[in-house]
Amino acid sequence: MKETSAENLRTALILLTGEGDCTPTIQAIERVGGQIRDAYLPHAVIALVPLSRVHELVGRSGIASVDTDAIPDARLDQLTVAARSAAAVWNEYRRAEREAPDPSRPLRWDAPGHLPPDPPEHIRELWRQREREMQAGGPTDSDSSQDR
Fold first, then answer.
1. In the prediction, which pLDDT does 139 show?
2. By mean pLDDT, which of 28-32, 50-54, 69-73, 120-124 is the weakest?
3. 48 vs 10: CA distance, rounded Å
4. How far is CA 143 from CA 85, 112, 113, 125, in A?
5. Residue 40, φ and ψ in degrees, nearest 5
6. Has residue 44 been placed in a domain?
7. What does the pLDDT look like over 10-21, one tens digit per residue?
8. Are 21 and 13 in contact (CB under 8 A)?
């Protein structure tokens, strides 16, 4: 049974050996439930792969490595020029993904480099009305507190 639910799939950089026809390698990725997202043949593919089946691709014919996280600098030096280029882009993608805000944790209103969203139109109209009242010498907070 293929694992295809979103929580089980992990984006992976799959570096290829660059030898021969890539079709069997692509088919092997698909057989474990992988979905090819981008292909830079004959050097690399980006695929969504079930996390529990990533190990089945490691060491297969035509596959040099399978990475779901950034590739350490020490490994980058050991790669071919083409694989190193793919890995550098991959590492930048992973860095950006790590630094992206977590949607389950909203940004603070004073987060550096961000502005709060524009308020709804009816709130802006209330502000404009309040500004007009203040310019005309209308009620202030201290005046309205006496009415309570």
1. 62
2. 120-124
3. 5
4. 67, 36, 37, 21
5. -120, 65
6. yes
7. 999 999 998 888
8. no
Provide the whole-model pTM: 0.64
Domain count for the chain, please give it: 1
Residue 120 falls inside a structural domain: no
Q: Which amino acid is at 84?
A: R
Q: Which of 53, 65, 66 is nearest to 8 (CA)?
A: 53
Q: Are 18 and 61 in contact (CB under 8 A)?
A: no
CATH label of the domain that carries residue 54: 3.30.70.80
Average pLDDT, the chain: 83
Percent of the chain with pLDDT strictly greater than 90: 51
Q: What is the pLDDT of residue 115?
A: 66
Cα separation, 68 vs 44, in Å, equals: 13
Domain that holds residue 25: 6-99
For every residue of 61-118, DSSP letters joined together read: TTEEEEESSPPPHHHHTTS-HHHHHHHHHHHHHHHHHHHSPPTTSPPPTT-TT--PPP
ω before 24 within 30° of 0 (cis)? no
Q: Is residue 32 part of a domain?
A: yes
Q: Does residue 65 contact residue 83 with C-beta atoms inside 8 Å?
A: no
Q: Is residue 67 one of the residues assigned to a domain?
A: yes
